[in-house]
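DM from R.C. (forwarded with permission)

"hey, sorry to bug you on a friday — could you get me a structure for this? deadline for the figure draft is monday and I only need the backbone to look sensible"
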Amino acid sequence: MFDTLCRRFLPTYNDDASWVIAPNFQRLAKRCVQFNKCYVGGMACMPARREIHTVGEFVRGQEGDKWKGEVLSEDEKAGKNLEIYPHFLNLNPIQIRDQINRKYMPRTADMPQHRTFTLGLEFLEKNVDKDRFYLQIETFDPHEPFFTTSEWKHLYPHKYDGPEWDWPPYRPLFESDEMVNHMRCEFAALITLCDAMLGRVLDFFDRHNMWEDTMLIVNTDHGFLMGEKDWWAKVYNPLFDEIANIPFYVWDPRHYDDEKDANPFQVNNSIGKNLQCDCLVQSSSDIPATVMGYFGAKRPRCMTGTDLGDLLAHIYQQGKLLAESKQNIISNIPQSLHPHPHGGIFGYFGCQVNYITPDGKYVYMRGCAENINNGPQFEYTLMPTRMASFFNRKELSNWTESGGGGKNTETDIYKDIFAFTKGYKVMKVPTEVWLESSFLY
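My reply, with the result:
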């Protein structure tokens, strides 16, 4: 699982991205089914991970992680971004910690992404001959800041005479074309680093022929605006396709038998078909359902995602029929196999919530015109913490007990939206609007 992996910078999704060096994503697409209409669910980074609920070994040092105990001098704090952000007197606290962390990553091998993939590959080395295991390799890259070492930056020579700048702001676009191009090159360099890390996993699959019995899923949590729509970033802007329509690749070995059937991925006896599907899917909710289906596990009643197994089986079967043709988009999907025949919902808590039609052609964006009226809002939890902080004293002095849901195991999940609590009582905490409505811009 990558973070902020943008379709527009992947050659398998965008013909205009041929300038981005990503041979391993192209190699991946030739093995997998590529979903062209995959949309986010809960935005942004943390909600997407919550929808999968995984835990494991962590690697320190990414972005503003409070990793190393070092204090920057006043000279180090000031000046770096003043030409870009004249309204900043200093780097903000997260940027300060990031500058400290970078001192301890002079080589690619020192960077959190490389170390994370190394741990994942160590797990595979230990367990490659075992059965029924689940491994999630989750990297925070290519999330901003777009920090890489010189070996990756040098792959994208371009004209730029400004200060060091690889951390785009969350606001409308004010920068020159030269600065925008520079930021895109910094991002592309990080994409190429991500591509190299993906290649390490694909190499392992090849060496041990894991394609025969191991499912492989590659996804991301959301995209990012890199100057499109005259915006940077996400969150403060409407959820345009650059943010909401995300890359998603799946390899399912159950439906592939090179000994008995025509290989749907063969083109002149070499891997290279790149099967694609235009069905609407939502990876954050469909991945758990698909993985549970793959292992034959019983799904919890409160799980709303769709197991993509039957759809993948149909795509592979159609791919076999098209093995000798140039066509690679499987379009004749029976209605019964469409994962989301009623469309999909995606958005932010306390801000905008969007509906996408079942065919993926239209999105209805709904947001509150005036923030003051966008309430009341409540958070329901048994663990009053957020991404990088605890709930504050005011919030914890006003919570009430919620009876939860899921007491009746036969209740329709859509009639019992708290069924995921399985009858446990939870804290109902009043919360304030934390995000300005993107429709104010």
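R.C.: lifesaver. The first helix runs from residue 23 to 29.
me: no worries. The longest strand covers residues 33-39.
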